[in-house]
Amino acid sequence: MNIAKPLVLLSAMLLISSCNSIPKNSGASLSLKNTYKKDFYIGAALDTNQIKETDPMVTDLIAKEFNSITAENCMKSMYVHPEKGKFDFKMSDQFVAFGEKKKMLIHGHTLIWHSQLAPWMAQIKDSVTMAEAITNHISTIVEKYKGRINSWDVVNEALNEDGTLRKTVFLDTYGKDYLSFAFKLAAKADPKTDLYYNDYNLCNAKKRKGAVELVKNLQKNGAKIDGVGEQAHWNLTSPSLDEIEKTILDFAELGVKVSFTEFDISVLPNPWDIVGADINQRAEASEKMNPYPNGLPDAIQIQLAARYEAIFKIFLKHQDKIDRVTFWGVNDKQSWLNDWPIKGRTNYPLLFDRESKPKKAYYSLIELNK
Ligand code: XIL
């Protein structure tokens, strides 16, 4: 097939449509956070370089576009609590200081998670030692940042795809009540911070049902839970808009806030035809699986923008139920999706390109809510 002609046509269309979609008042105040100010917080996950402010251009972009931040890695137990009773708060201190300096909503990610878990915790064999470990971990961290962190992912990814509780060292040693235990400890350590349950693939009906039960159980056990975080690691076609809307409605009905906590849209083929974000799943690299190593074709750029726009329309429709939409990274270069589930690919899932320049999807989202 001769693809040259359609490509020329598409490029012309892209040029015309992106010119049309660049807002007229592209002054200094034009930004995602201002555009969505009345609706929900707009967040980004920051990596170590961004927290350290190594690139002033990126620092300015973060401050201009976002009003909430999440630490992409530095608050996970393997980094913040690498040895029993030994904490390393160097990066998390800088992260919190960054958010305070820029007057942002600061989200803590994450207290109890089976991945990127401190090795000493992974080796615990009995309930008493696990109770001590969870207590020390949560109380120390949450108390340290009391009054400075607005919300925490207390437990991350506790569910299997069928909605049952995932077999982890926490479940194996402490039993199913580790969830209420963790939420109660966090509430005691900082009664005012919002407490979240966070997971991926909550559009899967069975898993969503499991998450609804999980929240109801916490509420029944007298634990404070303020929100459900939907990670939202999605792609160009899945999940459907109906499924996305359903998750918002189902969680809002429980009386908790709904946040989209790790939003990105992969444009690359999925090696397993499954949905999700289990960071322990890996697949082999191949040329077929990395189709755009030298740039995203215009047609896909348009598709990505349309997909972001369609999803944000649903978010706007339910802005009264949604507290925050956080992107899992600032720019495409930083995205974890370049290395997951296949290492070394070139993915384009975010609103800013590898040079931190706004993409068509960015302008679509500004235009949508001007
Ligand atoms: C990812 C980070 O982005 C990567 O840098 C790291 O190597 C692995 O973890 N679900 C989560 C996030 O809750 O913490 C994960 O972040 C992505 C999936």
Describe what you observe in this structure.
With 370 residues, the protein is an alpha/beta fold. The protein has one domain (40-269, 284-368): TIM Barrel (Alpha-Beta Barrel). It has 14 helices and nine strands. It has helices spanning 4-21, 32-35, 48-52, 56-65, 77-80, 90-101, 119-122, 127-144, 169-174, 178-189, 205-220, 241-252, 298-317, 360-368, and strands spanning 41-46, 68-71, 105-112, 151-156, 194-199, 227-230, 233-235, 257-266, 322-327. Strands 1-2-3-4-5-6-8-9 form an eight-stranded parallel β-barrel, surrounded by five helices. Helix 11 (205-220) links the parallel strand 5 and strand 6. It binds (3S,4R)-3-hydroxy-2-oxopiperidin-4-yl beta-D-xylopyranoside. (3S,4R)-3-hydroxy-2-oxopiperidin-4-yl beta-D-xylopyranoside is lined by residues 72-73, 156, 231, 262, 277, 279, 336.
